[in-house]
Every structure is written in C-alpha cells, then in structure tokens.
Design brief:
Distance between the termini: 63 Å
CATH class: Mainly Beta
Number of strands: 10
Shape: globular
Low-confidence stretches: 1-22
Keywords: Signal
Strand content: over 45%
Organism: Tsuneonella litorea
Radius of gyration: 19 Å
Number of helices: 1
Mean pLDDT: 84
Number of domains: 1
Strand order of the largest sheet: 2-4-5-6-7-8-9-10
Protein name: Elongation factor P
CATH architecture: Beta Barrel
C-alpha cells in the first residue's frame, strides 16, 4: 500500500529538480547606481531618464531607491525585486551592466536600467 503512494512521488522528483535547475544559478548584481531610462528618438534625446526609478544595489541582495530599501533575487538572468518599494518588478539581465524591464504579460518593456558606477551611499 505504501509503495503505491511512494512511486508517483519518486517519479515526480526529477521533474521538480529539473524545473528548479532551469531557473538558473543564484547570484548578485554588482553594487552601484542603476540609472533607468526609456529610449528616445532620432529627433531628440537618445534616452529619456526616469529618475524616480533609479536605484542603488547596496550589498549582496539589497537595494535602496527614492522610496526606501528592499531586497531582490537574481536567478540566472532574471532579477525579481522581492521586498520593499520595488516589490514585484522584474528585469532580465541583458549585459554585465544592463537590466531590461519585463512587463506584466512577461514581454520586454521599453525601460532599461544601466549601472553607471558607484551608488549614492559611496
């Protein structure tokens, strides 16, 4: 009787492990200020700064923005803000210094944030 219930669990374990592995390795972003912007156009500015979205990676998995502090989780190339004023925001790492915002539908949004250097706390 017990063996009948254990077999489905054992068969499901590789699937669960594979799904967790597909997420990517845990990591952290390099400390510093991330300046967020929208693309401009050929007739005007190359980019349009969004100062209220700027944030500093303080240490390990902590950030500070204009509205307060919080935490984020980096798995593979995906950054998800898990606590604080940016909670729920999601980005995809598109380079060593660039994060591209992800929209509610899972598509890439127009906003990007680029690490400019040291943060305000430095």
């Amino acid at each position: 009787m017990v063996a009948r219930h254990v077999l489905p669990i054992l068969l499901a374990l590789p699937l669960a492990a594979g799904a967790a592995h597909a997420e990517g390795r845990l990591g952290t972003l390099e400390p510093g200020r991330y300046l967020c912007e929208l693309p401009g156009d050929a007739a005007g500015l190359a980019s349009i700064p969004i100062q209220e979205a700027w944030f500093d990676i303080v240490n390990a998995s902590s950030y500070a923005g204009a509205e307060g502090r919080g935490t984020y989780l980096l798995t593979g190339k995906t950054v998800v803000f898990t606590r604080g004023p940016m909670q729920g925001m999601k980005f995809v790492r598109s380079g060593a210094r660039t994060l591209k915002a992800v929209g509610l539908a899972g598509d890439l949004a127009r906003m990007r944030c680029v690490r400019s250097g040291r943060g305000a706390a430095d």
